[in-house]
Amino acid sequence: ERETRLKFICDCTAGVMSSTGRSAFFSRTHVNYEIKGDVAVIRMNDPSVNTLSVQMQREMTEVMDEVWGNSAVQSVVLISSKPGSFIAGADLNMIQACTTAEEVTLLSQEGQKMFEKIEKSPKPIVAAINGSCLGGGFEFAIACQYRIATKSKKTVLGCPEVMLGLLPGAGGTQRLPKMLGLPSAFDVVLTGRSIRPDKAKKMGLVHQLVDTLGPGLKSPEERTIEYLEEVAVEAARGLAKKQIPLTKEKGLMQKIQDYVMSYPFVRQQIYNTVQKKVMKQTKGLYPAPLKIIECVKAGLEQGPTAGYLAESQNFGKLAMTPESKALIGLYHGQVTCKKNRFGTPEKEVKALAVLGAGLMGAGIAQVSVDKGIHTILKDTTLEGLSRGEQQVYKGLNDKTKKKSITTFERDSFLSNLTGQLDYNGFNKADMVIEAVFEDLSIKHKVLKEVEAVIPPHCIFATNTSALPIKDIAAVSKRPEKVIGMHYFSPVDKMQLLEIITTDKTSKDTTASAVAVGLKQGKVIIVVGDGPGFYTTRCLAPMLAEAVRVLQEGVDPKKLDSLTTGFGFPVGAATLADEVGIDVAAHVAEDLGKAFGSRFGGGNIEFLKSMVDKGFKGRKSGKGCYIYQPGLKRRDVNTEALEILESYKLTPNAAISSDSDIQYRLVSRFVNEAVLCLQEGILANPVEGDIGAVFGLGFPPCLGGPFRFVDSFGADKLVEKMRKFEEVFGNQFTPCQLLLDHAKDPSKKFHK
Amino acid sequence: MSLSLIRTVLLTAFSFCSAARSLSTSVHLQAQGNVSGVMLTCEKWKMPIPFSQYNSKSKKTLAKPGVKNIVLVDGVRTPFLQSGTTYADLMPHDLARAALQGLLNRTGLPKDAVDYIVYGTVIQEVKTSNVAREAALGAGFSDKTPAHTVTMACISSNQAMTTAVGLIAAGQCDAVVAGGVEFMSDVPIRHSRKMRKTMLSLNKAKTLGARLSLLGSIRLAHLSPELPAVAEFSTAETMGHSADRLAAAFGVSRLEQDEFALRSHTLAKKAQDGGMLSDVISFKVPGRDIVSKDNGIRPATMEQLAKLKPAFIKPHGTVTAANSSFLTDGASAVLIMSEEKALAMGYKPKAYLRDFVYVSQDPKDQLLLGPTYATPKVLEKSGLTLNDIDVFEFHEAFAGQIMANLKAMESDWFAQTYMGRKTKVGAPPMEKFNTWGGSLSLGHPFAATGCRLVTTVAHRLQKEGGQYGLVAACAAGGQGHAMVIEAYPQ
């Protein structure tokens, strides 16, 4: 009876009863609690998103103290009132507001202290997790004695700090190795990957799983949280009464692993292996993973005091690194580029038609059908269509193998796809995306054919990497409905979509294209029209320079290691093979015509000779490298080297050191990017950075060309360029905007 | 806590006021320690309450001018036995034969008077894929009577009956036998796909070498068999798991489920002892004794029920073996005729089969909500209200499923949000609901249950003097069915 009464009283928040909790209850905005019999249910409800902000931490500390001090409470449930998130992580603004490493270290230490108290709580605490439980939120959860998670698709656990150039700074590097064992802990902390509930249960991160509920007497989301709370309260009682054991009986494998790990020699081997792997993957350009290893090692080898100290100090240091700032900048940029700054389109695109079932067309179809967009995939030949449909099927089927979708979901997604050879049904299309061969006359032919069959409201989007949209739109009867949508291959993996508008493209057309792209899960930049738009225009000079470097006798492997050594995920030679030597030649020629000698450098004839020999890159099996199916190892294509012989240039020793070559490649890229901003092709530096990193693999640790200029210094970059300019001429002439920034160091692209 | 409080709380729960939602776990826990109180309230449900008068009905009859009256002449079923018991060595068509022969015996129907036979089954015995035909031949029906098999999960024999109604209404037939059989004692277990593929290739292999190389390709893993599961193909979720989630979605407590299960068993026992289950025929099982009673009825105590661990969602689920229907062997059959034909042959029909509907919804989160969707639809179709119905027979797949449906039917919010209705239809009053037990206690041979429900409604109407009865059932695939039955004037 007492329980029912208490619940009743707590439900009536108007509160007639004078309880000690009452006044505090009203003043708190982020955390509140209710006592259900002998269990305190603490609910987190930040007015915006649940993060471990200063306010949240302060209120949580207050509430915990009250709960600990209340002798009626035997156990605690910690839950979020937000449907989509438990705690999304630490408050990034809080970290960014700090100006010194010491300040950040202090933040970390406060977090450590709070979670230490949670860990040592005399009353068992159950973390009831629904939605994202990441970063600091994850560290909070693993400090609790017991974890229950919903099986919701939104529920993910993990510590993504490493992806922001940070480390889990509130005990994560110390608790995880103890919970999971060294190898799994390293895997979780170093990759920063999101762990789904079923996997978390298997790993032992979560003790119990709760199903999501469907329609009932309340909305499914609301009732699922309620149900989670009910189950958690029962578990909390069981824990307090010691009916549920806190430590799980270890399995045989676990015991063996623990035994092996008890030898310092074995642990040392693991540190070394992990360190080597990290160095191989990051080329030492990312300090965070190395610091994480250091912290884990300190905790295990020198004890918790040293471990926690190392964690907080390294956290502080990392927060001040340019790498972390760059990565956080990218994170914010990505969030920005996931919004539609053109507003809601008048008509939602529900029926899409894609022309051309090649790699691109099929890829676009794949990322559309699984978002519920009815998609026609049209090709001109049965063979082409069959290949394209198989690509879509395989893309979705691979997801069933990874268990990210079920076979039933695959089937129902595929039911959104119609493969055909004619224009049947185009009269009902809301948008047509053409992905036919990059040839202006073919594009014109297709546009005219399509405009004859589509309804007036239908948008015509063209997927091209270099042809100016206004040239394609020249034959259109309705140029306001024509827009460029430049996808990156492979479409289902590459996050970027570059949307290109002409002077005539209407705002609603743009809004609609962005809406479709966002639905397809893309990060979007919207740029102005012109040869190569933004991304291709930046890439072309860099590839031209790469060709020159090859002509100067640098081995493709060496070229690759120089570029990856600078932070590009894919080396320049490999990138050329991936893009396609023929495409590169085509683009180089087109842009060369448009921009003149500034786009010179390497000899286009070399590329053409390669194409003549059939060395078109990965797709033809040979390019700079030889590709053999099933074989990971790639050998340099010696025949390509023979061709290079006839285009050989003599390197100028003054500008041919490894570092010079790197800056020759990068400065041309960066200068072109800045010029795009200067010319208004780019709307802002944020989109420039996002486009370069997500579309072209510009080193993420540098945060994109604009952030690179900010951190490296425009003056230093100009100085380097001037040196190259002396030898190569206008290809290295810094643009005006870059010069402005060089002259005035207070000018920054990012505030 | 006082005994009266428990009683109040429980009664409130079962009258499905909105307060039922507040029947929180705390009450559940406190009530567990006080089983005697619970038993007392259970006693109350055993009392059927006299029915309302005919003249208060929305409609005097559901007969429509120009539409044939279709009648249920009679219905029978074999005893429903837990699978693996006395029927264990039979085949499905043996059970079906027993039901069909029982129907002939009961009605004295000349075999050649039957125009058509429709029979339901869910788990198919591959040797008798058209089990209707095999059973009809074996039961001595004329080989000139065509027979086909239908399947629609737990509403397969409902589909058989409505198919019969359709054939008669369309003027194609005058007398149709419908029924259903389920045999869970033996289910088809297959070789793995890889093994099947190898075996099929083996048939085609011409040379000894080719055969040997195929045999050599067999790996240990190929030998693991494929078992049929009571799981949705589309979601891969077992039905019990879905029922547990459904119960949780509607806040149905373990206590409510156990109490409903106990009610079902208690009422079934009473009906069995009181000779109400007259549709059951005796069956001499070859090599075994004569079976004449259902063997799954086991009224336990609340204490015993409370001891069981959850069967599907562990450790916090609420659906247990005792509050779920069990795997059952059994068959049923009914004789459906046009009224003229029945009267011409000198029969006194038991009931009119009137309007019926089929519904379907999301197979994941609303798998078992068929009755909630079907009931208002069939009532509207026939122009009746819930108050007009004197007898309710709902298929009890799980106690939690029944309770969830009752709560859904009692919820305006659910009706508005998910059914596109302005108001709730209301939940059937418990004193009219499954008063002779249900699938939880009598058993649930998937494809045989539908005929049992319809026959039971007819018998209850006769016994209790009501006019209208309503059958409703859920089925795998997120489907559902409801039918209105009108008593034949006595």
From TrEMBL, chain A:
Location of the 3-hydroxyacyl-CoA dehydrogenase NAD binding domain: 352-529
GO terms of molecular function: enoyl-CoA hydratase activity; long-chain (3S)-3-hydroxyacyl-CoA dehydrogenase (NAD+) activity; NAD+ binding; transferase activity
Keyword entries, A-Z: Acetylation, Fatty acid metabolism, Lipid metabolism, Lyase, Membrane, Methylation, Mitochondrion, Mitochondrion inner membrane, Multifunctional enzyme, NAD, Oxidoreductase, Phosphoprotein, Transferase, Transit peptide
Superkingdom of the source species: Eukaryota
Location of the active site: E498
EC code(s) of this entry: 1.1.1.211, 4.2.1.17
Protein name from the UniProt record: Trifunctional enzyme subunit alpha, mitochondrial
Organism: Cyprinus carpio
Lineage: Eukaryota, Metazoa, Chordata, Craniata, Vertebrata
UniProtKB/TrEMBL annotation, chain B:
Signal sequence annotation: 1-19
Keywords (A to Z) from UniProt: Acetylation, Acyltransferase, Endoplasmic reticulum, Fatty acid metabolism, Lipid metabolism, Membrane, Mitochondrion, Mitochondrion inner membrane, Mitochondrion outer membrane, Signal, Transferase, Transit peptide
Record domain Thiolase N-terminal: where: 70-340
UniProt GO BP: fatty acid beta-oxidation
Pathway(s) the chain acts in: Lipid metabolism; fatty acid beta-oxidation
InterPro entries, A to Z: Thiolase, Thiolase-like, Thiolase_acyl_enz_int_AS, Thiolase_AS, Thiolase_C, Thiolase_CS, Thiolase_N
UniProt subcellular location: Endoplasmic reticulum; Mitochondrion inner membrane; Mitochondrion outer membrane
Catalysed reactions, semicolon-separated: decanoyl-CoA + acetyl-CoA = 3-oxododecanoyl-CoA + CoA; tetradecanoyl-CoA + acetyl-CoA = 3-oxohexadecanoyl-CoA + CoA; an acyl-CoA + acetyl-CoA = a 3-oxoacyl-CoA + CoA; octanoyl-CoA + acetyl-CoA = 3-oxodecanoyl-CoA + CoA
Pfam families, per the entry: Thiolase_C, Thiolase_N
The family this protein is said to belong to: Belongs to the thiolase-like superfamily. Thiolase family.
Function: Mitochondrial trifunctional enzyme catalyzes the last three of the four reactions of the mitochondrial beta-oxidation pathway. The mitochondrial beta-oxidation pathway is the major energy-producing process in tissues and is performed through four consecutive reactions breaking down fatty acids into acetyl-CoA. Among the enzymes involved in this pathway, the trifunctional enzyme exhibits specificity for long-chain fatty acids.
Complexes and interactors: Heterotetramer of 2 alpha/HADHA and 2 beta/HADHB subunits; forms the mitochondrial trifunctional enzyme. Also purified as higher order heterooligomers including a 4 alpha/HADHA and 4 beta/HADHB heterooligomer which physiological significance remains unclear. The mitochondrial trifunctional enzyme interacts with MTLN. Interacts with RSAD2/viperin.
Name listed for the protein in its UniProt record: Trifunctional enzyme subunit beta, mitochondrial
